[in-house]
Amino acid sequence: xxxxxxxxxxxxxxxxxxxxxxxxxxxxxxxxxxxxxxxxxxxxxxxxxxxxxxxxxxxxxxxxxxxxxxxxxxxxxxxxxxxxxxxxxxxxxxxxxxxxxxxxxxxxxxxxxxxxxxxxxxxxxxxxxxxxxxxxxxxxxxxxxxxxxxxxxxxxxxxxxxxxxxxxxxxxxxxxxxxxxxxxxxxxxxxxxxxxxxxxxxxxxxxxxxxxxxxxxxxxxxxxxxxxxxxxxxxxxxxxxxxxxxxxxxxxxxxxxxxxxxxxxxxxxxxxxxxxxxxxxxxxxxxxxxxxxxxxxxxxxxxxxxxxxxxxxxxxxxxxxxxxxxxxxxxxxxxxxxxxxxxxxxxxxxxxxxxxxxxxxxxxxxxxxxxxxxxxxxxxxxxxxxxxxxxxxxxxxxxxxxxxxxxxxxxxxxxxxxxxxxxxxxxxxxxxxxxxxxxxxxxxxxxxxxxxxxxxxxxxxxxxxxxxxxxxxxxxxxxxxxxxxxxxxxxxxxxxxxxxxxxxxxxxxxxxxxxxxxxxxxxxxxxxxxxxxxxxxxxxxxxxxxxxxxxxxxxxxxxxxxxxxxxxxxxxxxxxxxxxxxxxxxxxxxxxxxxxxxxxxxxxxxxxxxxxxxxxxxxxxxxxxxxxxxxxxxxxxxxxxxxxxxxxxxxxxxxxxxxxxxxxxxxxxxxxxxxxxxxxxxxxxxxxxxxxxxxxxxxxxxxxxxxxxxxxxxxxxxxxxxxxxxxxxxxxxxxxxxxxxxxxxxxxxxxxxxxxxxxxxxxxxxxxxxxxxxxxxxxxxxxxxxxxxxxxxxxxxxxxxxxxxxxxxxxxxxxxxxxxxxxxxxxxxxxxxxxxxxxxxxxxxxxxxxxxxxxxxxxxxxxxxxxxxxxxxxxxxxxxxxxxxxxxxxxxxxxxxxxxxxxxxxxxxxxxxxxxxxxxxxxxxxxxxxxxxxxxxxxxxxxxxxxxxxxxxxxxxxxxxxxxxxxxxxxxxxxxxxxxxxxxxxxxxxxxxxxxxxxxxxxxxxxxxxxxxxxxxxxxxxxxxxxxxxxxxxxxxxxxxxxxxxxxxxxxxxxxxxxxxxxxxxxxxxxxxxxxxxxxxxx
Length: 1083
Hints:
The protein is mainly beta. Helices cover 8% and strands 35% of the residues.
């Protein structure tokens, strides 16, 4: 027999409309589980003398006596640990004392069950921390004797590690079949004793993390040999093991608290590890806690979640969260600590790399979160998210830190008595909070279900674990709490008609429970799902050696695929659902497999035939406008292409940043020649857009270059745009060609024959006021006089309309006159009909009302072949700080002659400033006396802070839409909104291009973006590597399938060109801010 059938369940479905909560909290009077991790601080042992004092305990689940029932082990810090024997029917007995696993008088942290000696009985490894001294202060390994007793044997196995251990995980990293170990140790040094110095993690420490190789049941520290950091800056709180890159070797993710970055160790196929976090993560959590990995979208690739401490609500963030300055954030990145943000991180793994999308998913802020567990809570076939929250004392309460824990208050306490520290801790606020629960909707969106599912009790929760405690086919939940009884939740998903399959893997050589295996289920309806056998999960906790699959309602299993730890593959068929099965490695056939890693390294492109690097000038927008959430001074480079010399090969103009020469690359027999003149004359300008066009109808292309950016005085001539006339292949700058009424930063330029006289005119849009972000700019019409000289017009309808980023010239109403579509930041998509002597605004008449966004660019094309141009518009996406109903108020609030823009979020139809109190007061010192306490400021609307006259006289702009969109015409006078795919919304879109890449007769769409220059409390727009959307006229958007371009960086422009005259291959040139030009073969 291929596998053993343990239990077949006949589930009685109570009701299809069952409405009670899915989870029922079980009373300790019923279960006998009355464990309480009670913490009491003293003058010599408290969070000031031991920083992890409030971190709490863990949970380990496993069947210690092989009776088919999962038992529970709970760790205590000051109290003894507890081992609850599962006696069935929700009856448990604490046998820790008799079993010899109390760990009395020690500070226990993590626990995991593992059959270390392969005798068929689960052993137990407990990690220790806290103050030094005492009996058995070291980590302890308890060997199961098979009679409900254990013998401590850590010294025999070399696992008697003593330090600030947090957790341990057992897995076979080197492919020799036996189980090795990783022990997570927190640094013994104070966090405050470090500076952001390069190379600190390279210095090993005896007290650091340890990778332990199993050599005949003796564990040997091989950390340095195998590429594992063990330095004193490792403040690890979580171990997560998964095959992240698809090569069937276990990789490691280590989440580090405080300033050290998290580690991603990719397994070099048994020959050590390479730490690759900076290569495959664009954003990390700053105060990383626990983590978990699982396949969240059933694409058979593991995703990753890391928890942090960011409060859920804006008012609590203002009162409980401390933020780094932008300067310190940049310094940390430059010193090798990567980009860390104060929020949870949800790293979606798309096979090639990770995309941090927590903000778009609504998972970035869940309070002081110790860990998330990813498991199918309702058996619908998709893994959900459970987060354990809470800290007994609010260590980061801003009012406490400012007014209670300051030097003056401490001196006062010293004078008043001897219990100074305990008195100080007593003053800390304390408030239990709810744990978080998010249902996976199956489309990579999530909804908060904590109340509906009965999991909304407030607590100070820490470690947690899931397992089917009553063998009814769904996963129950155990949560370890500080100063209250552990939560025991029974899952009632069995009444919702969803099905399941539970799998135990057995008799793998030297690793009896086959830790490290991967199981994939293929359903007859085409669905598939994957789970990995790595028990150590979350925070200080571990789950049973069972792989649980929720199957949903229409469950019929086509086949089951197992990838064993030795990279052999087995396939089983004819498996019924709603059962528990054991699969014995020795009784089924398997074949060798050896897949290649799927991750793609940065900057993998073709040999560059153009050598150009954009060098952004150093300018910090926040120095002049403190309240800006992001910078706007990095809007280049621009790329323009055309075959200028008639050799059938494209030539290129590449615009430089301020202080950098721009270049023209002309093709020749020997490659490309770089031409710097006359462009070097204007190296002090910042090129943001450029366009080749025949201004004088002489048959060759002239060049218009737009100057932009914010690093200029508004009186600076370097803001002037430039016109370069092409004289038989030589470009000459003509200073008299352009005549604007003022100097301004340009955001957009396009060409079109506005007056139908046969000459191309220019439409130029003003980006912003270089001194005051928020002041709307104007559009200028440059009428071509026929000889490349232009007359500038300033139509009144186009004055002061917005902060313009792009303009499209197209015939909207089929009257054979070119109209203009203008997009920009904090403005609607603005369509103006060309009526010869004036421009008529018609957006509200054609379905484009309420379209105010942070629009970055626009392309127009007729996607549905109705003769009317459709609009493709790039926005900032859903994975950032911009939100619908967000506003800014622009005024001189402190009456010092300079305008300030104050940004607000709308909460319950009231506008609350998004700014940190200290930041707001630094800009507006007159507010200090009225905003004394953080808790008071956190609840104030902008109307509470400023008088009504100031607000009534302010310029106010609002956002309606942050998604990148396609506006599809369904009539000559009407447009329908079609959002681009959710992956496009992961970041901003600053570059668009249309090209039939796959030669199927339909236009494909290329998109690129990202904006890194954002204050750390708001977080960068960084989760894009560029995308191709392939055209499909049958789709409601005109596009269907999507693939990544795998281009890293802030993409600002694209150009697609044929590879050679005779080839149908295509090259994509991507202009990257502050980086080299990337050239990729896209066909």
